[in-house]
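New to this. Help decode the following:
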Amino acid sequence: MEITIENLRTLLGCCTILNMAMLAVWSLAFVFAHDFVFRMHTRWFRISEERFDEIHYTMMGYYKLAVFLFNLAPYLVLRLAQFN
């Protein structure tokens, strides 16, 4: 398979959608199954609920930033750029 600009654009678009869906599932699990997820993690790690919330909130922000920088921004550049 040859890597063309169109193939790369399609790949980045699909990656963006999949990563944002993963972030949405993570966020929904954090909101609606918070106690269950917290109990699972406290079996392995000794951590307070406040620290648990802080870690998850921070990591969701880092994940979103990474998706924007490595998937969405290159996709938009390839989408908006004019190639001859």
